[in-house]
């Protein structure tokens, strides 16, 4: 699974503590550590005794965790005599992934009989819990009650997924996808400056079918829009995404409406727009759609042998412009952001679209230059707002472009 939309490089110097408990899923916490380090987060680790049956402290050290503790006393505690208190003093979030039924029970009851449970009891910051266990254990009334107690106390629950278990059972109990856990950890470290705002993001390509199995489309990956959606959600907004076909997997906190065609995207976006504070259209909407051939059944595949001379002419009609439509319907209390990709006259084209489509901000990039545009993890953009402000940004990861776009709202 691609994680580029989660690769926010703006957490340098921030520290979280990762607790790992005894589940077969413990090896996935190494991937969580790797992704956190990618976002420049400093990570300390505590492994319970049973976690060490599945993964070793040296693997965490090799991936950059510091410190790594394995016991309350002796060599596993390191040189720090107050190792049970240090995460509470130094880390901004405590994430336990995977969290076993036993650990949930200890946390719910306030037991402090090993290093991790003691550190958790002494930790007053955000606690994130990603359970993993056999489905019967997850469904057990005692576990349900412990889980509810922890959620009621304010823990962020990253509930387990459905799937096949190592023991052969199938059900709910698999560790949530590591990418979803990562997103929640980054959210715990983010400012909440978009809290109370509702954000709408259109993203990805559209597909315009011309028979039962073929379509016109483009190679948009939806990455820029996904980064904007993620950044807004991490910063406290309610985020609704209208997505054309993409491979991007969003954490459950983001509400996603999947669409295929431009007209479906327009319908979905228009339905959500009245209830939106900040709209952001990044979708690479196909400007044209094929008209069905005369007497063609859209449920049928067109066959070569049915064509008189083997050639086929498609007639294209214009699709609605979603951004323009939202701009026409925009209220004074709403903000609308558009994107544009141009081959020439970047500034004048962007200025024209800003005013024609009634936008508050437009993010423009030149196509055909390296480090920019479609299917690329970075973008080199010029940003114009309705007050006349123009900023030219260097080549940046799309995550960083997204973060800075939301920062610009301060000026509007
Ligand atoms: O006019 P142009 O296609 O360059 O405008 C690009 C902007 O308009 C992008 O924000 C894109 O998401 C949006 N757009 C749209 N509906 C269309 C075409 C473009 O929302 N049919």
What's a concise summary of this model?
By secondary structure, this protein is an alpha/beta fold. It is built from 13 helices and 22 strands. It is 29% helix and 23% strand.
Q: Any overview of this molecule?
A:
The chain has helices spanning 28-38, 57-62, 86-90, 101-109, 115-121, 135-139, 141-152, 178-189, 223-234, 262-272, 322-328, 346-356, 398-407; strands at 15-20, 42-47, 68-69, 93-99, 127-131, 156-157, 161-164, 170-174, 198-203, 208-209, 215-216, 238-243, 255-258, 278-281, 288-291, 315-318, 335-342, 361-366, 378-379, 382-385, 390-392, 396-397. The protein has 412 residues and is an alpha/beta fold. The protein has 2 domains: 4-189, Rossmann fold (3-Layer(aba) Sandwich); 198-411, Rossmann fold. The strands form 6 sheets. It has an 8-stranded mixed sheet with strand order 13-12-9-14-17-18-20-21, with helices on both faces. A 6-stranded parallel sheet has the order 3-2-1-4-5-6, with helices on both faces. A two-stranded antiparallel ribbon has the order 7-8. Helix 1 packs across helix 8 (178-189), helix 4 (101-109) packs across helix 7 and helix 9 crosses helix 13 (398-407). Residues 202, 262, 281-283, 285, 287, 319, 321-323, 338-340, 353 line the site of cytidine-5'-monophosphate (C5P). Residues 202, 262, 281-283, 285, 287, 319, 321-323, 338-340, 353 line the site of cytidine-5'-monophosphate.
List keywords for this structure.
alpha/beta; Rossmann fold; eight-stranded mixed sheet; six-stranded parallel sheet; 29% helix; binds cytidine-5'-monophosphate
């Amino acid at each position: 699974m691609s994680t580029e939309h989660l690769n926010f490089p703006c957490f340098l110097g921030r520290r979280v503590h990762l607790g790992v408990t005894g589940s077969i899923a413990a090896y996935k916490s190494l991937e969580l550590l790797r992704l956190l380090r990618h976002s420049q987060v400093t990570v300390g680790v505590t492994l319970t005794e049973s976690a060490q049956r599945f993964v070793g402290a040296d693997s965490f050290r090799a991936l950059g965790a510091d410190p790594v503790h394995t016991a309350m006393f002796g060599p596993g505690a390191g040189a720090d005599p107050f190792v049970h208190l240090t995460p509470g003093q130094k880390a901004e979030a405590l994430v336990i992934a995977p969290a076993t039924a036993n650990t949930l029970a200890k946390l719910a009851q306030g037991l402090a009989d090993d290093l991790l449970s003691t550190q958790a009891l002494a930790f007053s910051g955000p606690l994130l819990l990603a359970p993993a266990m056999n489905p019967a254990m997850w469904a057990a009334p005692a576990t349900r009650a412990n889980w509810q107690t922890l959620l009621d106390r304010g823990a962020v629950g990253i509930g387990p997924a459905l799937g096949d278990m190592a023991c052969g059972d199938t059900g709910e109990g698999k560790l949530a996808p590591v990418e979803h856990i990562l997103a929640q950890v980054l959210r715990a470290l983010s400012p909440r400056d978009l809290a109370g705002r509702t954000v709408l993001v259109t993203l990805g390509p559209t597909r315009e079918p011309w028979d039962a199995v073929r379509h016109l489309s483009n190679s948009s990956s939806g990455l820029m829009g996904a980064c904007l959606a993620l950044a807004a959600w991490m910063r406290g907004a309610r985020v609704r995404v209208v997505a054309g076909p993409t491979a991007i997997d969003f954490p459950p906190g983001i509400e996603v409406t999947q669409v295929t065609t431009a007209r479906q995207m327009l319908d979905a976006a228009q339905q959500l727009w009245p209830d939106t504070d900040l709209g952001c259209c990044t979708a690479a909407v196909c400007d044209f759609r094929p008209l069905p051939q005369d007497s063609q059944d859209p449920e049928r595949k067109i066959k070569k042998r049915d064509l008189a001379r083997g050639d086929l002419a498609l007639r294209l009609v214009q699709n609605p412009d979603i951004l323009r439509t939202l701009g026409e319907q925009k209220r004074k209390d709403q903000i609308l952001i558009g994107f544009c990709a141009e081959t020439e006259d970047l500034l004048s084209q962007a200025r024209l679209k800003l005013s024609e489509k009634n936008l508050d901000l437009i993010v423009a990039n030149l196509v055909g230059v390296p480090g920019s545009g479609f299917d690329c993890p970075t973008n080199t953009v010029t940003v114009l707002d309705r007050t006349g402000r123009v900023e030219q940004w260097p080549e940046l990861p799309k995550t960083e472009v997204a973060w800075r776009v939301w920062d610009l709202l301060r000026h509007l």
